[in-house]
């Protein structure tokens, strides 16, 4: 690679890709034409032909600080030369320092367990929830309530918690004990309500499920503050507080999945803080290292740890181990990420840019095919429909053409991951916090042009 261009043999590399690399989530023919990314700077990535794209998806919702932060690479290098590896069955300094910082970011005392991915952070949360109840004398509490359209990961438990059919199809049966409820989708309310007549029936339904399942069998409820990959579904303001209240009343733990919403994305350090809710367990990954190295964490309220795990009976400790969880280099990059976030006031920046993005997106409201526009922090979803009156979802091929038209114009936008029939018509935006105001405007301009191009 020279000046961002793969000088020799781009086609030979892609031929090898077709032969050796298996790309997930991409259908066979599409997987034969990947974009080979060879570099990046700020909010931009460069492909092998030297094309530069404004990445309005931060890779996979994670490169919050942009692509060229040498400080993050240097933190990894320093750590790897000093002490490259030791498992967290013992300890090391970067893990201690990062656990303390995360607890501070969470605004309360939390015990932190490190792992490798958002999926694993959620698996760990489910295990902790079950074990917590078992060790307090309620071993029959093992079920987890989750929402349709949510995504919580790709492993057998996290996938079972997810509510997206196409990701599960042909892999079932998955882990048992996950009970799904309708999502807070205010544009297509599962209870036929409009915002003006909403009585948060979707939250009330969780209360009903507690009775129908018998609450003594329910260990936890898991929810993202805003369903992200499932189409940026922003709930009514009282929804998460209501889930908190329901969990308290029924003795279940509230797990909040902050894998995307965490680390400033919503304009607050964590998304749940915007709703004034204190979760029992918080799971995080992605933005924790701004995507530079794999790392995830499961944070558990210190009181819960003290209550159920601070004892020496047989089997009372958490029996989950992973070789790479809390890798020293990843923790060092996590610390450097938080340093930059704090030094450059990135949480405030995300909030201010998010307000701008929301205001700019309003310009699209009158365009053909634009049904609903939802924004929350520096995160947005534009729901495309055949026409505004029927709200019939726009055909997936046409949504794909909008995404492709944006890319042709040099802007990468996303599409919701929920490809359940009738549920894959939402363009998603999740730009790095380093975008400028002009770049936010450009993202919206290009999306508008792309929508007009298919109209
Ligand atoms: N939870 C949420 C909300 C996610 O969006 C994702 C991934 O996109 C995950 C969990 C799983 O994270 P990972 O891909 O790191 O396993």
UniProtKB/TrEMBL annotation:
InterPro entries: Aminotrans_3, Aminotrans_3_PPA_site, PyrdxlP-dep_Trfase, PyrdxlP-dep_Trfase_major, PyrdxlP-dep_Trfase_small. GO terms for molecular function: transaminase activity. Keywords: Aminotransferase, Pyridoxal phosphate, Transferase. Transmembrane segments: none annotated. CDD domains: OAT_like. SUPFAM superfamilies: PLP-dependent transferases. It comes from the Bacteria. Belongs to the class-III pyridoxal-phosphate-dependent aminotransferase family. This is Aspartate aminotransferase family protein. It comes from Alicyclobacillus mali.
């Amino acid at each position: 690679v020279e000046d961002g261009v793969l000088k020799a043999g781009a086609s030979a590399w892609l031929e090898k890709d077709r032969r050796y690399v298996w790309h997930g989530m991409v259908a066979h023919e599409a997987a034969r034409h990947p974009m080979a990314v060879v570099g990046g700077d700020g909010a931009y990535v460069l492909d092998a032909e030297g094309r530069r794209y404004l990445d309005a998806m931060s890779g996979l919702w994670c490169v919050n600080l942009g692509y060229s932060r040498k400080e993050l690479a240097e933190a990894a290098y320093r750590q790897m030369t000093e002490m490259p590896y030791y498992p967290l069955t013992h300890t090391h300094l970067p893990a201690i320092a990062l656990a303390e910082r995360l607890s501070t970011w969470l605004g309360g005392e939390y015990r932190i367990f490190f792992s490798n991915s958002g999926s694993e952070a959620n698996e760990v949360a489910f295990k902790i929830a079950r074990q917590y109840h078992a060790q307090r004398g309620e071993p029959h509490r093992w079920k987890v309530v989750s929402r349709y359209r949510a995504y919580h990961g790709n492993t057998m438990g996290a996938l079972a918690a997810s509510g997206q059919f196409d990701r599960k199809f042909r892999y079932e049966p998955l882990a048992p004990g996950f009970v799904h409820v309708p999502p807070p989708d205010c544009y297509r309310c599962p209870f036929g309500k409009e915002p003006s007549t909403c009585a948060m029936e979707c939250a009330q339904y969780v209360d009903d499920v507690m009775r129908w399942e018998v609450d003594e069998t329910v260990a936890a409820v898991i929810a993202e503050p805003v369903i992200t990959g499932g189409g940026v579904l922003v709930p009514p303001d009282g929804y998460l507080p209501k889930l908190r209240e329901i969990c308290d009343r029924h003795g279940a733990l509230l797990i909040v999945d902050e894998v995307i919403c965490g680390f400033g994305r919503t304009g607050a350090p964590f998304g749940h803080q915007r709703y004034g809710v204190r979760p029992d367990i918080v799971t995080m990954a992605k933005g924790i290292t701004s995507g530079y190295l794999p790392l995830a964490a499961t944070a558990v309220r210190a009181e819960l740890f003290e209550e159920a795990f601070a004892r020496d009976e047989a089997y009372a400790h958490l029996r989950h181990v992973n070789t790479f969880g809390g890798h020293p280099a990843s923790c060092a990059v996590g610390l450097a990420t938080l340093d930059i976030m704090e030094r450059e006031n990135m949480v405030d920046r995300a909030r201010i840019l998010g307000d701008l993005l929301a205001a700019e997106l309003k310009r699209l409201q009158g365009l053909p095919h634009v049904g609903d526009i939802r924004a929350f922090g520096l995160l947005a979803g534009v729901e495309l429909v055949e026409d505004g009156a029927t709200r019939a979802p726009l055909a997936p091929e046409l949504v794909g053409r909008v995404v492709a038209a944006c890319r042709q114009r040099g802007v990468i936008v996303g599409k919701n991951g929920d490809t359940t029939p009738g549920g894959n018509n939402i363009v998603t935006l999740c730009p790095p916090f380093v975008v400028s105001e002009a770049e936010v405007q450009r993202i919206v301009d290009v999306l508008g042009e792309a929508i007009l191009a298919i109209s």
